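tool_call: predict_structure(chain=1)
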Amino acid sequence: MSYQSEITSAAQLIGGNGDPWKGIDAEAVARMRLQNRFACGLDIARYTAGIMRRDMAAYDADPAAYTQSLGCWHGFIAQQKMIAVKKHFGTTKGRYLYLSGWMIAALRSEFGPLPDQSMHEKTSVPALIEEIYTFLRQADSRELSLLFRDLDKAREAGNELEEQRLLNAIDAHETHVVPIVADIDAGFGNAEATYLLAKKMIEAGACAIQIENQVSDEKQCGHQDGKVTVPHEDFIAKLRAVRYAFLELGVDDGIIVARTDSLGAGLTKQFAVSKKPGDIGDQYNSFLDCEEIDDVAQANGDVLINRGGKLMRPRRLASGLFQFKSGTGEDRCVLDCITSLQNGADLIWIETEKPHIEQIAGMMDRIREVVPNAKLAYNNSPSFNWTLNFRQQVYDAWAAEGRDVSGYDRAKLMSAEYDGTELGAEADERIRTFQRDAAARAGIFHHLITLPTYHTAALSTDNLAREYFGDAGMLGYVKNVQREEIRQGIACVKHQNMSGSDIGDDHKEYFAGEAALKAGGANNTMNQFAA
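tool_result:
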């Protein structure tokens, strides 16, 4: 509804309740309604699922229409990110949020910092989703509050042109609420546990849930060793569990992102159930590293399988885990992705060990032979040394072309001495265009960075600590933080306004009229930043 329609609706409601409601102002009600657009998390999940579905269709039509997100570990960080996006680009279109299980484990667990092994409380995942959307909704409320205040000033000044401009701006207001791709790890247990947690995540506002094919109680970070995958049927059951959760809650177009860790996972905890040769269970088991057994007596206490009429003993580690044949990771990834897409997943995620477009594209070409509209969400991970990887890629490409690379030491290309070189410049350009190029060549619909704000918080805090506790003293804060906030127009320089003080003043005036004791008077030191 438009602003004026909301006022009219509120006025009719108030008028219908007679004198007892005469102290209620219709325009104030309209403002509060517009500032609280989403009544609950399910409203958010339904709204943002629609955004993602439209964006996916747009990408199918044009790969240049890829989407992006940054991982955020606190509602405030997510809020400031989206405020910055609106400030710099004028719209949130194509920009999402990523919720990282790694960052919840490291930063949000009551146990303190934990490794990314699903040891954090399950409840911390939906709690962070709810927190993020609380902060994003507050950003809406704050932005609209500023428009309402400007509208009042225009009316007081009799400036009808400015009044109409502001009314149009209020009606056209774009929310800070955007889709969250939320990490449910390996599902935190069996399919029932996955379903129960997925429901809580969706109720908090998640429209897209990312789940990986690792064993829940052996889960490892995607960029560490020791990963153990599950047979396809086990993973499919969890995909179905998430879909049932979406459908039960009325988010009919919710998005499931199926992640495979098979590229770096060389182990399995169990064999797949196979009912006939060539079925999905048989295909999973075919990757097991086995040795032929002639004498059953040699296999005391071992598990044996029949492979093509031969009795085979899978290689088992001291841990009891079974290993896959070396060099089968890409084949297993392709099979994982096709199987997931054929069983309800909307997007796939291949966790790689390096950012290499042709490696990703080689797998996607095979996947798209079976599922033509297959699309990836891809982790532009801080676990990659992007500078070294791309400099080595350029070095190798130049060497293959016969160019002279004698002036470069491939093993030491991270060195700052190469920053100003031609090789360094070409590597940086490849990094700059990586997302665009990978979207076009490798089917990547959504580019995300899992842990960026973890690293930015660490870097900025280190810089401030070095300056403030060193010779610079207070100048270390003023020069490098506050002065830059003012000059770059960072909204948080007025931290009282950002925390909701002015919104509180608005409410005080609605509730108490002229008797309201407001914080935003002439003696408020935030007025120093008015200029």
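agent: The chain has a mean pLDDT of 93. Proceeding to next step.
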